[in-house]
Design brief:
The structure holds two protein chains of two kinds. By secondary structure, chain A is α/β, with parallel strands linked by helices. Chain A is 21% helix and 42% strand. Chain A has eight helices and 21 strands. In chain A, the strands form two sheets. In chain A, strands 1, 4, 5, 7, 8, 10, 12, 14, 16, 18 and 20 form an eleven-stranded mixed sheet that branches. In chain A, α1 runs antiparallel to α5 and α7 packs antiparallel against α8. The longest helix of chain A is centred in the C-terminal third of the chain and has 17 residues. Chain A is globular, with a radius of gyration of 21 Å. The model of chain A has no long low-confidence stretch (mean pLDDT 91). By secondary structure, chain B is of the alpha/beta class. Chain B contains 13 helices and 24 strands. In chain B, β3 and β4 form a beta hairpin. The longest helix of chain B is centred in the C-terminal third of the chain and has 18 residues. About 5% of the residues of chain B have low confidence. Classes of the chains: A alpha/beta, B alpha/beta. At the A-B interface, β20 and β21 of A face β22, β23 and β24 of B. β21 of chain A pairs antiparallel with β24 of chain B.
């Protein structure tokens, strides 16, 4: 359990000490625990993870500087877990130290691991009544030749009343790394957010992210979890409907190949009445890879007039791929409408035949159908820049896929 | 409304205790008790060895705890593991039986005499733990069907019992299955020979009677090649304050082209208005489709027990085999039902269907928990699952926990679930036609459960509809 070693050497802050106490009470996640039923974490346990070193950091920084940037994105970046600052004046960033303990508390193993390591991070605040048209892009870039790198960035984003924003997280890099990102979003009354968590990791990387959304009254969230590369990607998405009339749409797309695994744990809680939640997750699973969807929807006692939909669709592209799906509904109020559905299947032979009869080769037909299946998710991304960026990236990966 | 109140105050209709002499062993569980049970039943050595092996394994197990079921800890040393009505020798005809006992069944609404002559259903009555009466034996014997208590089968057909007992639910399966294997006192055994269509529906009638008696039934049903059997199981139990444990094991085996339909109506004591008392129903039911084109279908109406923990499952081993699960679970007051199924697809072109309907009222909890697993060998497997829950009242809860695990790309699998309350519009429509609230709800619930009821044999279907109506009248205000 190398992830735990080394914490003791850190300077002790109250935040870290508290998290270490919680960690010592929590067992290492194994498949015996419901939340980790389908995910084997041996790889994490066996690797000797190290914090980023100064030498690697300098190299990684210069690599990152050479990467092409999306012109419209307002980009902030963590290189090897170290925040690189933001020079513009249009965003208000504050240090994490201003936050109270209760704002950061976590019950989760990896959430506490993040806190215990006293990760770098910031509070981003979008003042009331402001509309941020261009996407705010936060990059988590990793590159290390010497060691297996571990980093635990921590972000808090507060979106003021009547504000609207678009935001994208991108995790990518080279070599072996473990990225353990925790982000907490607070959407105030009448605010809106379109958010993308994009994972395009190296084939030896583990990327974990815990994204929590707290929705105030009439707040509106549209969240995308797009994971197309990486050895082990895990997203824990939590959406808490705290204010009446809030609504959330969460979409997911996971594409796995080789022996990679993409694991999605989502928890949507309707804590007050008159809220709406919609969820659609799609998986495209090739080679010997594995896709996991574990989606919980809770409608609390008294949260009447809730409306909740959840759907998970999986397409198996190879005979050795595996799809595990576990939607769950927990309903404690009676005046609600809640549905969920889950399907697993392969590309329809009739559809391939139809395209072939139009003169399209079988390989091409499969490519077209797989693209159509995956691109549906991206068609819901409203921001034009994020939309075209993601489509471009996805097409690239699909082309390289051996179908 | 006054009718409803009357119903509520009436309490549990079947809550009475039959005063007859019962033969009991001391409380507690140890090797000696198991030896005693085995000795009392005059069992062969291999049976005793089987029990002891199960007991040894049970000692190594920890009692399971589930997130959505809560109850006081059971003290397994405080239970009695054997209780038989004393008057059990020489049961050649029903008239010889203890008149008290016969009266009990009459009050429950199954006059045995009647059944024997008219209904065409052979009843293997289990009173507490020992079979005390059988009907229609001759007709069955003629067809070659073996239908008797499992103790009798151990004496008369040891080769069959030895071969199949524990082949579907091994002693290592779970905590309660191991316990059952160690201490089971009786149950039903049924063997349908090759190419035989069982001439009548078979039925067991369970009843828990003596207080503080653990009830451990063991049912073993084997359908040989090309045979067909329809098996019915129904239960009611008298009112008790202490919680009673029921940990039955049912094993079904279907060989090539055989078909088994297993239907259950369960109406055990649910505990009082405040959730005190009631039966703990921790049952392991599993069928194995070993043969090609075999079929096993589970149909259940769960309307009783304080806690139900039951997942009738099918292992689809033979190619083209088919498993079905139809369930209605009605919970009221403080009942907790955690039920569902497991469909394990192993053979090629296997098919499974799951239809589950849950109705929760009062402060009850109703959960569907199911697993559909497609193994790499199960080419072209097909599954369809549908789980609907209906909530009546603001304090009940309904949960759905399906587990879907697919390891073969040719599988096609669909799962859908909905949770909602009775539609206001439909209620309004019915009421505007002059029906009262109870009638309207009852009609809508009936419609909601129709997919399952239509799978039940006629007698059971009628009983089930009545049962649900009665239960709803008690709990919907």
């Amino acid at each position: 359990m190398n992830l735990l070693n080394g914490i003791e050497k850190l300077k002790s802050s109250e935040r870290s000490l508290q998290a270490r106490r919680v960690l010592s009470q929590l067992p290492w996640p194994t498949r015996q625990q419901e939340e980790w039923r389908y995910t084997n974490l041996d790889f994490l346990a066996k690797t000797d993870w190290q914090p980023a070193g100064a030498k690697d950091l300098a190299a990684a920084k210069s690599e990152y500087a050479l990467l092409a940037q999306e012109p419209k994105f307002k980009t902030l970046c963590f290189v090897n877990g170290v925040f690189q600052g933001y020079k513009g004046s249009d965003l208000s960033l504050r240090p994490l130290s201003g936050l109270s303990e209760s704002e950061l508390n976590s019950k989760d193993f990896f959430g506490n691991l993040n806190l215990a390591w006293m990760s770098e991070g910031f509070v981003l605040e979008i003042p009331a009544g402001q509309s941020m048209v261009d996407p705010i892009c936060i990059d988590f870039y990793y590159s290390s030749e010497q060691v297996a790198l571990a980093a635990h960035p921590l972000l808090v984003v507060k979106i003021g009343e009547r504000s609207s924003a678009r935001m994208i997280f991108r995790t990518f890099g080279k070599g072996t790394y473990f990225s353990n990102v925790v982000a907490k979003f607070h959407l105030a009354k009448d605010s809106q957010l379109e958010f993308v968590n994009y994972q395009s990791n190296s084939s030896t990387a583990a990327s974990f992210s815990q994204i929590e959304f707290n929705l105030g009254e009439s707040a509106s969230l549209r969240s995308f979890d797009v994971s197309i590369k990486g050895k082990l990607n895990r997203e824990k998405l939590e959406i808490y409907h705290q204010g009446a009339n809030s609504n959330s749409q969460s979409y997911g797309l996971y594409l796995t190949q080789g022996q990679s695994q993409s694991d999605h744990y989502t928890n949507i809680e309707h804590r007050v009445g008159h809220c709406q939640s919609q969820q659609l997750y799609k998986g495209l699973l090739a080679d010997e890879s594995k896709g996991v969807f574990n989606g919980r929807v809770l409608i609390a006692h008294g949260a009447e007039k809730a409306n909740s939909e959840q759907l998970n669709k999986n397409l198996l592209l190879s005979s050795k791929a595996e799809a595990d799906s576990k939607p769950q509904l927990e309903i404690l109020a009676d005046d609600v409408k809640a549905t969920h559905g889950s399907t697993v299947g392969q590309i329809d032979a009739d559809e391939i035949f139809y395209l072939q009869s139009r003169g399209i080769s079988k390989a091409q037909a499969i490519q077209i159908l797989a693209q159509g299946f995956a691109l549906e998710i991206l068609s819901f991304v409203q921001n034009a820049e994020m939309n075209s960026y993601l489509k471009r990236e996805l097409r690239e990966v699909l082309k390289g896929l051996d179908l | 409304m006054s009718d409803v109140k009357k119903m509520v105050e009436e309490g549990y209709k079947y809550g009475f205790v039959t005063e007859i002499e019962t033969e009991q062993v001391a409380k507690g569980l140890n090797e000696d008790i198991i030896r005693l049970i085995s000795q009392k039943k005059n069992e062969p050595q291999w049976m005793l060895d089987y029990r002891l092996k199960a007991f040894k394994h049970w000692l190594t197990l920890e009692e399971p705890h589930w997130a959505h079921v809560s109850y006081n800890k059971i003290d397994y040393q405080d239970l009695r593991y054997y209780s038989a009505p004393k008057n059990k020798a020489e049961k050649k005809n029903l008239e010889d039986l203890d008149p008290e006992l016969l009266k009990t069944f009459e009050r429950l609404g199954i006059p045995l005499q009647e059944q024997k002559r008219i209904s065409g259903v052979a009843v293997d009555v289990v009173f507490d733990s020992v079979s005390i009466g059988q009907t229609h034996t001759e007709v069955l014997e003629k067809a070659g069907v073996v239908f008797c208590s499992i103790s009798e089968a151990i004496q008369k057909h040891p080769e069959l019992v030895k071969k199949y007992l524990g082949s579907v639910v091994p002693i290592t399966d779970n905590f309660y299955a191991a316990l059952n294997a160690a201490v089971f006192t009786d149950g039903s055994f049924c063997y349908i020979p090759k190419g035989t269509r069982c001439p009548m529906d078979l039925s067991t009638y369970f009843r828990i009677n003596a207080s503080e008696t653990g009830q451990f039934e063991r049912t073993l049903l084997i359908a040989d090649e090309g045979s067909y059997v329809n098996y019915l199981e129904g239960c009611t139990a008298p009112q008790r304050d202490e919680n009673q444990l029921h940990a039955a094991v049912v094993e079904l085996i279907a060989m090539d082209d055989a078909e088994i339909k297993y239907s259950t109506v369960q109406n055990w004591y649910t505990g009082d208005k405040n959730g005190r008392g009631g039966i703990y129903n921790f049952v392991t039911k599993r069928g194995k489709c070993t043969g090609v084109r075999s079929k096993i279908s589970w149909t259940q109406v769960e309307a009783g027990s304080a806690i139900t923990w039951k997942y009738p499952s099918v292992i689809l081993q033979g190619d083209y085999s088919e498993g079905m699960f139809y369930s209605v679970a009605l919970t009221h007051d403080y009942m907790q039902a955690d039920t569902g199924t497991k469909m394990i697809h192993i053979g090629k072109n296997t098919k499974s269907t799951i239809v589950s309907k849950g109705i929760a009222t009062g402060n009850s909890k109703s959960s569907y928990r199911g697993l559909v697993k497609i193994l790499p060998s199960a080419t072209n497997a097909r599954n369809y699952s549908q789980c609907d829950s209906m909530l009546v009242g603001p304090d009940c809860s309904a949960n759905t926990f399906p587990y879907i695990e697919v390891k073969n790309k040719t599988a096609t699998l669909e799962h859908e679930a909905t949770t909602s309350r009775i539609s206001e519009d439909q209620l309004f429509y019915l009421r505007s036609r002059g029906m009262d609230m109870e009638q309207s709800i009852s009609l809508l619930v009936n419609g909601f459960c129709k997919d399952v009821f239509k799978e039940l044999p006629l007698e059971f279907s009628v009983e089930a509809v009545k049962l649900i109506e009665m239960k709803l009248e008690n709990s919907v205000g």
